[in-house]
Amino acid sequence: MPVDVNLPKEGMIYQREQYQKGGIGRWYWDYRDNEILKSIRDEEIIVDIGCGEGILMEKIIQRLPDVKVFGVDPSPENVSICKKHGLEVYAGNVYELPLDDYSVDCVLFIEVIEHLDYAGLAIKEIKRVLKKGGKLILLFPHDSVFKLARLLTLKFKEAFYDAGHMKQWTPKEIKRLLDSMGLKIISKKNLPFYLWLISLHCLIVARKQ
To answer: N or C end of the chain, less CB within 10 A?
Structure first.
C-alpha cells in the first residue's frame, strides 16, 4: 500500500496486489467492506481517512454514484496510486486534516487507529470536521486472531509482516475513548463472528452529538 508511511519500502505488501490474488482473503475483504457499506445511509459527503490505495472508495463510488467521496492519506505513494485510479485524494494526516470545521457527513476510519500514537487527538480532529449528527465508521483488527488465521491459511509473509501497529485496541477501550470525546455509539459488530475473542475485526459506528 504501503500500510504505514513509516515502514521500509523493502518487502512492502500492497493492497491492490493482495486483493487481486483472490481466494479466501479477497472473500473476507469483500465481506468486510460490505459490512462497512451497510453503515452508509443518506450521507452526502464522505471522507476516507487513511484511505490506502482506495479500494473501499471505489466500491462506494460504484454503489452510491451520487455521493461525494474523497480520501486523505499521509503516504505520497498511496495518494499517487489513488489518483492513477481516478480517485480524489489529498495528502494529510489525521492530526491536522485539510478540511473545514463541520464539513463532512461521514468519516471512514478503517484500520487506522491501531497505527496511531495519539488516538485521542485523532478522534478530536475527526469530531471537528464532522457535521452535527455526522457519523464516524471505525474498524480495527484483532491482531492475534489475524496472525493465527494467516498461519492456518499458509500466508506466512502476511502473518509475520510488520504492519506498524502501535496498540491492540479492544471494543471496550474504543467505547471509552469515543464516549470521552462526545461520540455516541449507535452500532457495534464483531466480524465475522459474534464474539470478539475469535473475530478478525470490530466495526463501530458512532454519531456526533
So the answer is: C
How many whole angstroms separate alpha carbon 20 and alpha carbon 46? 26
The candidate with the shortest Cα–Cα distance to 137, out of 166, 178, 86, is 178
DSSP states of 100-142 as a string? -TT-EEEEEEES-GGG-S-HHHHHHHHHHHEEEEEEEEEEEE-
Topology of the domain comprising 15-208 = Rossmann fold (3.40.50)
Domain ranges of the chain: 15-208
4-37: burial string, b at 16+ Cβ within 10 Å, e else: bbebeeeeeebbeebeeeeeebeeebeebbebbe
**pLDDT tens for residues 168-195?**
999 999 999 999 999 999 999 999 999 9
Stated as kind and residue range, the H or E segment containing 26 is helix 23-38
Residue 96 grid cell? 491536522
**How far is residue 157's CA from residue 154's CA, in Å, rounded to a whole number?**
9
Could you write out the three-class secondary structure of 44-64? CEEEEECCCCCHHHHHHHHHC
Residue 195's alpha-carbon distances to 43, 45, 189, 204, in angstroms, are 30, 32, 9, 14
